Amino acid sequence: MSAKNYESIYKKDKYVQAVKEKFEERSQTGIRKYNTTLEREDLNIVDWLNHLQEELMDATLYVERLKASYAEKTQGKG
Fold it and tell me: Are 8 and 2 in contact (CB under 8 A)?
């Protein structure tokens, strides 16, 4: 397969690549911090669901904070 054909078939999206890099960085941070990977087997399904719920609650707080900041900055602008 020529380089041109390869590029047209396997074109990469820069945003996808950036997210993949962030996932890898996040994984390495977690491994260093907790000395384990997501392959750990000491948590049951409820533990995993609790972790997910806590992460989603944090995300909701971040969204609320950003909405408030945006509203403050755009108040009275149209």
Answer: no
